Amino acid sequence: xxxxxxxxxxxxxxxxxxxxxxxxxxxxxxxxxxxxxxxxxxxxxxxxxxxxxxxxxxxxxxxxxxxxxxxxxxxxxxxxxxxxxxxxxxxxxxxxxxxxxxxxxxxxxxxxxxxxxxxxxxxxxxxxxxxxxxxxxxxxxxxxxxxxxxxxxxxxxxxxxxxxxxxxxxxxxxxxxxxxxxxxxxxxxxxxxxxxxxxxxxxxxxxxxxxxxxxxxxxxxxxxxxxxxxxxxxxxxxxxxxxxxxxxxxxxxxxxxxxxxxxxxxxxxxxxxxxxxxxxxxxxxxxxxxxxxxxxxxxxxxxxxxxxxxxxxxxxxxxxxxxxxxxxxxxxxxxxxxxxxxxxxxxxxxxxxxxxxxxxxxxxxxxxxxxxxxxxxxxxxxxxxxxxxxxxxxxxxxxxxxxxxxxxxxxxxxxxxxxxxxxxxx
Length: 426
Ligand code: HEM
Hints:
The chain has 426 residues and is an alpha+beta fold.
C-alpha cells in the first residue's frame, strides 16, 4: 500500500486501527513505535495522516489557516444510505460551532462569547459543584463500594454542563444515551446494523436541542451561556448565527459534559493505580491542582483531534498535500520524551505538567478548560477527604470504541465503611 503522495506504507502504519482494543486501552502506548520511529504516518485503514510528536502537533495547532479545524466534528466513519436517510428525516444539520469554525468567522464569535468563562464568572458555579459532589458521595459512602462513573461522575458534569449552558434540568438518562450516540456518530465506527439506531438517537438529540433553544428564546435574560449567545445574536446576528446556536446547543452538551466526566474517571483510576501517590495527595490536598494537570497529561479524556490541510505543506519534513486529513494524537504528544522528561512516569509534582495538549492549543484551545479543572479539583478534594481509604476493585476497563473521547465506562472502587474518617470525627 502507498500513501496519497506515492510512498510505500510501513507495515505498522498499514495495521494501525484506532477502533481496536489496543488504542482504546492506551492510545500513547499503542503509537509508541510511531512516536519513536515514524512520527508521521499515513493510515490506509482510516484515510488519515497520523501525527504523534509534541512539536509537530503544536505546529499544526498554531496555524489554523493551513490546518483547518473544519473536520473536527465530521463523521470519521462514513455511514450508509439508510443511516443518512434517518438523519435527514430529523432535519439533522449540525454545522459550524466554534471548535470546527474557520477564520475569519471563528475569532469574532469566540471573543463575543468569552465572558461567561472568566474566572469571576466561573466562581458562581463552584458552590453547585461542591454541593453536588457532597450529596452524591453521601448516597454511597456507607456502602463500601461504588461504580463512580454510574453513581457520580457521569451525572454531575452533565448537571453542571446543563446549568452552565442554561438548560433546565432534563432527563439525564436520555441525554446520556444521546451524547454517547453523538460520540459514536462522530468519532466511532458503528457496525452497519448499529448505524441506524445511532442515527435515530442523534436525530432526536438534534431536535431536542432545537426545542430547548426555542424555549430559551422566550426568556433570553435567564442565566446561561446559550442565553448569553442569544442576547449577543441580537447585537451581532452575523457573528452569532442561528445555525451556530442550534449546533452549539447540541455539541455544547457533549463538549462540556463527556470530556469532564471521562477526565475525572481517568484521573481517579490513574491515582488509585498508584496507591502511594494517592496517599500523598490525601495527606497534602495542596497538591491537587498540579495533580489534575498531570492526570490530564498522562491519561486525558481527549485522545486525538483532527485538522484538514488547506494548502500543500510540510510537517516534520513530511509532505502533506492540500486535502489531507490529519489525526493529531494529542495523548501521544503528552508522552513525548522530547517535551516531558521521563514522560511515562506519573509525577504529580512535574513542573511542566500543564504543557499537555489535552485541551488543544492556540486559537481554538478549549474555552471550558477552567470549568473542567474546577470540577476535577472539587471531586478530588471530596474524595481525598472523605474516601482516602478507597482502592480500585479488580475489573477490566471497557471504553466506547472511538478515536477521541476516552474514559472507562465503569470505575468500581471499594473501601471499608467502618474506617470512614467522618465516623471517627462524629
Ligand atoms: C474546545 C477538550 C471541557 C467547551 C476543545 C478542544 C479540545 C477540548 C481538545 C479543541 C481544541 C483545539 O482545537 O485546539 C476538552 C477537555 C475537557 C473539556 C479534555 C475536559 C476535561 C470543556 C467544558 C466546556 C468546553 C467543560 C464548557 C462549555 C469548549 C469549547 C471549545 C472547546 C466552547 C471550542 C473553542 C474554540 O474552538 O474556539 N475542548 N474540553 N470544554 N471546548 Fe473543551
